[in-house]
Amino acid sequence: MSDARRATGAGEPTGARDAPGAGPRPWLDVYPPGLAADREPEFESALEMWRDAVRRAPDRTLIEYFDATLTVAEVDRRSDALACALAELGVRGGDRVVVHMQNVPQFVVALLAIWKAGAIAVTASPMLREKELAALLADCGAAVILTLESLYEWIEPVRGAEHTVITTSELELAREARGPLAGVRRRRHEGTRDLSELIAAFDGRTPATPRLRARDVAMLVYTSGTTGPAKGAMNTHANVVFSAQTFRDWFPLAAEDRILGIAPLFHVTGLIGHIAACLLVPCRLLLGYRFDAAETVRMVERGGATATIAAITAFIALLEEPEADRDSFRTLRKVISGGAPIPPAVVERARRALGVEIRPIYGLTETTSPSHCTPPGVDPPVDPRSGALAAGVPVSSTHSRILDDDSAPLAPREVGEIAIAGPQVVPGYWGKPDETAHALPGGELRTGDLGFIDERGWFYVIDRKKDQINASGYKVWPREVEDELYGHEAVREAAVVGVPDSYRGETVKAFVSLKPDAAASPEELIDFCRARMAAYKYPREVEIIDELPKNAAGKILRRELRE
User: Fold this and answer.
1) C-alpha dihedral over 546, 270, 481, 467, to 10 degrees?
2) Which 3 state secondary structure label does DSSP give 227?
3) Is residue 139 part of a domain?
4) Which ranges in 117-236 belong to alpha helices (H)?
5) Is beta strand 68-71 parallel, antiparallel or unpaired with respect to 491-501?
6) Cα 559 to chain centroid, rounded
7) What is the distance between the alpha carbons of residues 516 and 320, in angstroms, rounded to a whole number?
8) Residue 378 contacts by C-beta under 8 Å, 6 or more apart in sequence?
9) Which of 322, 327, 394, 560 could, after both became Cys, cross-link 400 (CB 3.0–4.6 A)?
């Protein structure tokens, strides 16, 4: 067993009673019956979790991809073969293997195969380009890369002689190239191995998997890099299993559910809320290559999707899709959103237009997705002062508190940094002990997000600490201004940043995109906010642009707007 498989200093999963910051938990009052306040991971590893699903339901459909389906047993057999191929290529326990793909079935097969080889999966965004990929490869030290033929152009310039590249195609299983697959062509690249050929060559063989323990690293998931260089969060097998249980219990999910897989699979939301949750239940995962609003509507209708999780920007896009209506979304009854603050106005629009109730959750890459959820059957409150929608309450076995700049706990409704401790919190960042010590003192994650807790225990996320605007000495939270702008009938998306001002130090500037066929001038939007906000808060500048910049997970990038 390679030492790299273990998360340095990780230890076994932290119990609720001895977690940092453990104390009174007022949020338990809003837990509905059946949700355990404290629990531990049910399996030692994500692979053990999967093998339990194979024993229970081998013939159940696990993946639906356009006109193709794969059962639990078929995915298991393919991943066995690929794991044997990886071992033949020299992959050993603790080695890192990069998965650089869109939302295709091969992603799920690759993830399981990497675990069966005893290795660590490193998920890379399909949006990364040469410089970013080179930095990721150097940081994680991977020697094997699994990518799509259509993405190889970004891998080729940065691969070295030590790298083995395995390619596959988004057309591999789909017989009908429609929607986002239209125009895709097969192309073999010199010096690469073909994934389907490797699976065929090792079909029927069983890998010799080393024992995976709870604290072994299952995945390196790189942070979004919205406030600085991306870091590889070490998500352990215990982290993955516990968070899969959280989605199962808090959605809740059952065998008959069909999860609409529109969050990117490389992102922690897709890895846990789509893949890991489906592996645990097991239930069906509907994949469509990449997010396309029109194709997503057809996926819901054709596949009878019952549940999904995605960034709020995906739901905004669906609200603007002409084919989307209440009838087309009639089966979709379990809908949650995280990754970015949720404007209450968008929740109301989705309820009216699509009949969809969006329930907020909160989490980070470092919490292996959800740390706070809205309990099923419970309406999250809206804070009367700020207008912010509650992000949820801490999930089972999780302790969360609000801290001031000196790390002292704050009273209800006082704004400070959100801190989290629990079985889903990662032990640290890959190869970065200083960053780990800073972000995780005593194992408690300092999130960099500002928020507050109310008297009942609901948590509210106000903004990123680094995004606060200081206008003439007054603190302005961009999210509050954005929520107000979303209340204007013409606004599709909004992002607010601070810009230099010779008199005020900083002033508030808003970037806005408008709904199709809608019209609004900057002056109109400024007046709209001025009538509803304190004088120091409303934007002095509004710039209307076609599209706001986003990362692959759909989070709006304020940093790019500031630059």
Assistant:
1) -100
2) coil
3) yes
4) 130-140, 152-155, 195-201
5) unpaired
6) 19
7) 8
8) 30, 32
9) 394
Question: How many CB atoms within 10 Å of residue 475?
Answer: 14
Whole-Å CA distances, 458 to 10, 128, 377: 29, 36, 15
Q: How far is it, in rounded angstroms, from Cα 217 to Cα 235?
A: 6
Residue 4's φ and ψ, nearest 5 degrees, are: -65, -20
Identify how many contiguous H helices and E strands the chain contains and give both numbers.
16, 25
CATH code for the domain in which residue 138 is found: 3.40.50.12780
Query: What confidence category does residue 60 fall into, taking pLDDT thresholds of 50, 70 and 90?
Result: very high
Write out the E strands in 231-276. 232-236, 258-260
* Residues 326 and 364 reside in one and the same domain: yes
Contact 370, 8 (CB under 8 A): no
Determine the Cα–Cα distance for residues 450 and 416; give it in Å rounded to an integer: 5
Question: Would the CA dihedral through 394, 23, 451, 488 be positive or negative?
Answer: positive
Minimal CA–CA distance to 90: which of 138, 44, 143? Answer: 143
Question: CA dihedral in degrees (436, 440, 441, 443; nearest 10)?
Answer: -120
- The chain-wide mean pLDDT, for the chain, equals 91
480 shares a domain with 425: no
Q: How is the beta sheet containing 232-236 ordered, strand by strand?
A: 193-194, 164-168, 144-148, 96-100, 120-123, 217-222, 232-236
Of 265, 106, 86, 273, the residue nearest 193 (C-alpha)? 86
Check whether the bond before 441 is cis (ω within 30° of 0).
no
Pairwise CA distance, residues 83 & 97, whole Å: 11
Residue 4 — pLDDT band, cuts 50, 70, 90?
low
Task: Tell me which of 432, 460, 488 is where a domain ends.
Answer: 460
pLDDT at site 14: 42
Mean predicted confidence (pLDDT) in 521-526:
95
**Assigned token pair, 120:** 């660590």
| Pair 103, 212 in one domain | yes
Residue 186 included in any domain? no
Instruction: Tell me the backbone φ, ψ of residue 377, rounded to 5 degrees.
Output: 80, 5
What pLDDT is recorded for position 19? 67
Asked if residue 252 has a cis previous peptide bond (ω within 30° of 0), the answer is yes
Tokens of 17: 């009673």
User: How far does the chain reach from its first CA to its final CA, in angstroms?
Assistant: 46
Question: What secondary structure letter does DSSP report for 37?
Answer: S
Domains in the chain: how many in total?
A: 2
Give yes or no for a contact between 193 and 164, defined as CB atoms under 8 angstroms apart: yes
Q: Say if residues 418 and 459 touch (Cβ distance below 8 Å).
A: yes
Neighbours of 529 (CB within 10 A): 21
The verdict on 120 and 36 lying in the same domain is yes
Q: Using an 8 Å Cβ cutoff, are 392 and 372 in contact?
A: yes
Domain, as residue range, for 512: 468-562
